[in-house]
Amino acid sequence: MNNNKKLKMKEVGNEYMEQYNDLLRYVFQVTDQELDSIDWEEKEIIRAKFPTFQRAEVIGWFDGDTLVSQVAVYPMKIRIFNKTYNMGGLTGVGTYPEYSNQGLMHKLLETALKKMKENGQYISYLYPYSIPYYRRKGWEIVSNKITYEISDYQLPKNHQVPGNVKRVKYDSEELKETYEKFAMHTNGAILRDDLAWNEYWLWDPDDIMSAIYYNKNGEPDGYVIYWISEEIFHIKDMIFNNEEARTFKSKNIWFNPKRIIERNHIDILPVYIDPKNLKR
Q1: pLDDT tens column, 143-175
Q2: Torsions phi, psi for 240 (to 5 deg)
Q3: What HEC string does the chain produce?
Q4: Which residue from 70, 68, 71 is spatially nearest to 7, judged by alpha carbons?
């Protein structure tokens, strides 16, 4: 296809939710097998994403009544230097390959940025599939996601702390309160409302667990979110508000021979690995 004269750009209404989801699955290669692995069906995904879809500004290109290219902007808030700012969370970006190289996405991003400015959203976050592409559009890296795989002998010795650890349900209010306390003093952190939390948990396995560290005054100061699979301890996220909470793993649940640690900040490695056991 070499022209877009018959294509029309407009807002994507609720009646196109299924097409929106189909395009997402195609672009990000979400297979039925992957859905089965987390016990999801396609209709469940549509229902789960519908509330967030309603709040987002979604625009797309249509070929007749068929959605062929799209982008969504979620209204969010972030903390930067102890101030709260409106943020436009860019997501759902995708174009069917037969409609590529026509400038459709360039025009959608340009329109989305103009709408963000009108809405007072002068900052925008996204998870890029291609750093060079979005860098050309004006975005820049602010955080790295790095995965570490380590063995138990690489962990430092336990350090006793005065608080205690309590396991809680992954969607508990206690965990949300702990995160909010962390986000309020962390530069660049997103302030999550209920819909943001829904997106945060959307693709996780049902057996995901969490544990909160409480200081000696009974106040939450950190948590770890994790799941265990095939004797591997996987960490989805870990936060701490101070050095005491940083070492609370000594009273936590480490017991597996190896772990996969995922974190968006590159300073997490020294928390876990004893320098004497680093391979050089």
Answers
A1: 887 777 777 777 667 677 888 889 998 889 999
A2: -155, 145
A3: CCCCCCEEEEECCHHHHHHHHHHHHHHCCCCHHHHHHCCCCHHHHHHHHHHHHHHCEEEEEEECCEEEEEEEEEEEEEEECCEEEEEEEEEEEEECHHHCCCCHHHHHHHHHHHHHHHCCCCEEECCCCCHHHHHHHCCCCCCCCEEEEEEHHHCCCCCCCCCEEEEECCCCHHHHHHHHHHHHCCCCCEECCHHHHHHHHCCCCCCCEEEEEECCCCCEEEEEEEEEECCEEEEEEEEECCHHHHCHHHHCCCCCCEEEEEECCHHHHHHHCCHHHCCC
A4: 68
113: helix, strand or coil: helix
pTM above 0.90, yes or no: no
Could you read off the pLDDT of 106-157 as tens digits, one per residue? 999 999 999 999 999 999 999 888 899 999 999 999 888 777 777 777 766 7
